[in-house]
Design a protein that fits this description.
Blueprint: E1 5-6, E2 9-13, H1 20-34, E3 38-43, H2 49-62, E4 66-72, H3 75-84, E5 89-93, E6 102-109, H4 117-128, E7 138-141, H5 145-157, E8 165-169, H6 179-185, E9 189-193, H7 211-218, E10 225-229, E11 236-240, E12 243-245, H8 247-254, E13 264-268, H9 273-281, E14 285-289, H10 293-303, E15 307-309, E16 315-317, H11 326-337, E17 338-339, E18 342-343, E19 354-360, H12 369-381, E20 386-392, E21 398-405, H13 408-427
Parallel strand pairs: 3-4, 3-5, 4-7, 8-9, 8-10, 13-14
Antiparallel strand pairs: 1-2, 2-6, 5-6, 10-11, 11-12, 15-16, 17-18, 19-21, 20-21
Helix pairs in contact: 1-2, 1-4, 5-6
């Protein structure tokens, strides 16, 4: 069990389990692990971001690193910058979709890939056993980093979007720095909102976790496509013709015109069975990983698969992106749907009923004999007709229970049993 890292970096409430002192130690630990060299660092709009960044940089400098600052940029842009500048690693200060009071530290290697659990374990060792370094590093600003990433998106998608109309909700996050400009460079007409860099409002009632915001904004307009990004723009939600589309349908449509390596799409254990069945009908197949885009990416890189994603809105088109890229994915979806300025069909999957709960709980609950027995019992009950997934959140102190079944009543019964047990255990 990791002490600091979850499924997506180090994350917590600023001033609680994440503060400047820890950020400084992380900076020292990164140099101790990677060695002296270039480190790209950027952040989203959160109020605590500048303080964490300053402490990280101080630790990196003390270790002798050459720090390359890119300012406020989406997570995938920082991964790309790490590759472009041949850095030892890239660091993103962000808590992604979490509320404003949270923040986090994500780390990519020089290939723009999130660290393995083994690498994270090594860095955790150095955090707890800091070296007394006295080197003097340097800090340089990449002033045109935003423009560089806009150029990269435009060159990658490379499609005339004249006639396309898109509505963008930037969630007061990092997407606001590049999304509108990238779409407009390809000829699209863009309406944008929540585009001010106001970290105190990041993800608050808007962005990827709140697609109804952009849905309601589009009412009464002739816009059919709406995209909502989370705080660091590594994930998105999609509105099409007055409805919020589920993430598995989005993933399916992303792959419609791609030549897939080995005819494989990579999903997670939460991916709806409907996607698996539709891919089989098309002569393709779904390969599953644990929840988290880093696990998807890891398998993609090892096997050379070029499309993966998860319901939550992380989509990876490899090698163009080495992590979830909400803006690039939204541009590819637009490219798929618009042909010669006319809007085509979005194929919506006939999903299996699926519900989930998330309850506050300590990690130790997963080792309770009663919980283990409960999971085994209900897994057996659902055999052949559904699936049960029980896991700890990698970003919050919560246990997540997902049930999928053709009989929705069994879903409700199953979730009620788990909810009761978790709450009783917490109160008892």
């Amino acid at each position: 069990m990791s002490k600091y890292f979850g499924t997506d970096g180090i994350r917590g409430k600023y001033g609680d389990n994440l503060d400047s002192a820890l950020a400084y130690k992380v900076g020292l630990a990164i140099v101790a692990y990677f060695g002296k060299g270039g480190v790209v660092i950027g952040r989203d709009t959160r109020v605590s971001g500048p303080e964490i960044e300053a402490s990280l940089i101080e630790g990196l400098k003390r270790g002798g690193a050459e720090v390359l600052q890119v300012g406020i940029l989406p997570t995938p842009a920082i991964a790309r910058m790490a590759i472009k500048y041949k850095a030892l690693c890239g660091i993103v200060i962000s808590a992604s979709h979490n509320p404003p009071e949270y923040n986090g530290i994500k780390i990519f290697d020089g290939n723009g890939v999130k660290l393995s659990e083994e690498q994270e374990g090594s860095i955790e060792y150095y955090i707890d056993n800091p070296s007394e370094l006295r080197a003097v590093g340097s800090v340089h600003e990449i002033a045109d980093a935003r423009q560089q990433y806009i150029d990269y998106l435009v060159e990658t998608v490379d499609y005339d979007m004249t006639g396309a109309k898109v509505w963008l909700d930037c969630g007061y996050g990092a997407a606001a720095t590049v999304a509108k400009q990238a779409f407009e460079r390809l000829g699209a007409t863009v309406e944008i909102e929540n585009c001010k860099l106001r970290g105190e409002k990041i993800n608050c009632g808007c962005g990827a976790l709140h697609p109804d915001y952009v849905l309601h904004s589009m009412v009464g307009t002739d816009y059919k496509l709406g995209f909502s990004y989370d705080g660091d723009a590594d994930r998105l939600s999609f509105v099409f013709d007055g409805r919020v589309m589920d993430g598995d349908s989005v993933l399916y449509n992303l792959g419609r015109e791609l030549t897939l390596k080995d005819d494989v799409v990579v999903g997670t254990v939460l991916t709806n069975t409907a996607l698996e069945r539709r891919l089989e009908k098309d002569g393709r197949r779904l390969v599953r990983t644990p929840v988290g885009d880093k696990y998807i990416c890891d398998l993609m890189f090892k096997k050379g698969y070029n499309l993966g994603g998860e319901q939550s809105g992380h989509y990876i088109v490899y090698p163009q992106a080495t992590t979830g890229d909400g803006i690039m994915s939204s541009m590819i979806i637009t490219k798929t749907l618009y042909k010669n300025g006319k809007l085509g069909e979005f194929i919506e999957l006939n999903l299996f009923p699926q519900k989930a709960i998330a309850e506050f709980a300590d990690q130790s609950i997963m080792y309770d004999k009663e919980m283990v027995a409960l999971i085994e019992d209900y897994t057996a009950r659902l055999a052949g007709i559904g699936r049960l997934i029980v896991r700890m959140s990698g970003t919050e102190p919560k246990i997540r229970v997902m049930c999928e079944c053709e009989d929705s009543r069994k879903i409700d019964e199953t979730l009620a049993v788990f909810k009761k047990y978790i709450n009783n255990r917490r109160s008892g």
